[in-house]
């Protein structure tokens, strides 16, 4: 816990100091607002430390054990089905996705509802997490898979509503947050430890990259529908 809290302070404290300095120089705040900001920064540090500590001893452990369990079962439909379900659930649980969905709903005056956007993004992540698992199991080339994925994004960009383009790429970014990344990486580590028997430890990497293509394409397809 001490190490986690130290890492959080190193990450957040410089940004807090910079904001305070910029505020003092360019946009002075009254003492009450400054105190509120500093208290909020302290609460954020504590909350982030507790969250990361919990992630290390819960999500990552569960992801690793789940990956090992699925490979040990040697049940391909179960592996694919749970990979899809995991992609959906962890995306819905990602705070950044919730924030993006709410902002898009507010800006679009409810035209793009929060529920629809979250559903589209989570399903896209689930589908491409399945592709990432298949790449690992069948030893597909990561480079070729990413090339095909970005080629599909390029093609979709000609048909989607231009207003959905920035939302699509932001959707890909928010799905690589503090909930999804630790779980997917630990899940991949569990899979590779049983699939490849340690022959290629690097196979546990790349799953996040492949999975993040799903939300981009999914939101672009939503833009095609709205267009």
UniProtKB/TrEMBL annotation:
<dbReference type="InterPro" id="IPR011435">
    <property type="entry name" value="UmpAB"/>
</dbReference>
<feature type="transmembrane region" description="Helical">
    <location>
        <begin position="205"/>
        <end position="226"/>
    </location>
</feature>
<dbReference type="Pfam" id="PF07556">
    <property type="entry name" value="DUF1538"/>
</dbReference>
<feature type="transmembrane region" description="Helical">
    <location>
        <begin position="141"/>
        <end position="159"/>
    </location>
</feature>
<feature type="transmembrane region" description="Helical">
    <location>
        <begin position="7"/>
        <end position="29"/>
    </location>
</feature>
<feature type="transmembrane region" description="Helical">
    <location>
        <begin position="76"/>
        <end position="93"/>
    </location>
</feature>
<keyword id="KW-0472">Membrane</keyword>
<feature type="transmembrane region" description="Helical">
    <location>
        <begin position="113"/>
        <end position="134"/>
    </location>
</feature>
<keyword id="KW-0812">Transmembrane</keyword>
<keyword id="KW-1133">Transmembrane helix</keyword>
<feature type="transmembrane region" description="Helical">
    <location>
        <begin position="171"/>
        <end position="193"/>
    </location>
</feature>
<protein>
    <recommendedName>
        <fullName>DUF1538 domain-containing protein</fullName>
    </recommendedName>
</protein>
<feature type="transmembrane region" description="Helical">
    <location>
        <begin position="35"/>
        <end position="55"/>
    </location>
</feature>
């Amino acid at each position: 816990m001490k190490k986690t809290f130290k890492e959080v302070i190193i990450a957040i404290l410089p940004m807090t100091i910079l904001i305070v300095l910029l505020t003092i120089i360019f946009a002075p705040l009254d003492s009450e607002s400054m105190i509120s900001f500093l208290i909020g920064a302290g609460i954020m540090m504590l909350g982030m430390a507790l969250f990361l500590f919990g992630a290390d001893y819960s999500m990552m452990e569960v992801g690793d054990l789940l990956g090992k369990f699925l490979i040990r079962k040697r049940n391909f439909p179960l592996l694919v089905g749970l990979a899809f379900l995991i992609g959906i659930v962890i995306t819905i649980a990602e705070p950044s996705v919730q924030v993006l969905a709410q902002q898009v709903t507010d800006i679009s005056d409810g035209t793009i509802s929060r529920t629809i956007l979250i559903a589209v993004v989570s399903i896209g992540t689930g589908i491409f997490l399945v592709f990432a698992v298949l790449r690992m199991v069948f030893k597909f080339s990561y480079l070729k898979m990413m090339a095909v994925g970005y080629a599909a994004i390029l093609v979709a960009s000609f048909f989607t509503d231009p207003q959905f383009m920035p939302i699509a790429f932001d959707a890909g970014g928010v799905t690589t947050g503090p909930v999804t990344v630790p779980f997917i990486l630990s899940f991949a580590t569990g899979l590779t430890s049983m699939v490849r028997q340690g022959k290629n430890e690097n196979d546990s990497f790349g799953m996040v990259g492949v999975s993040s293509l799903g939300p981009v394409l999914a939101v672009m397809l939503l833009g095609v529908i709205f267009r």
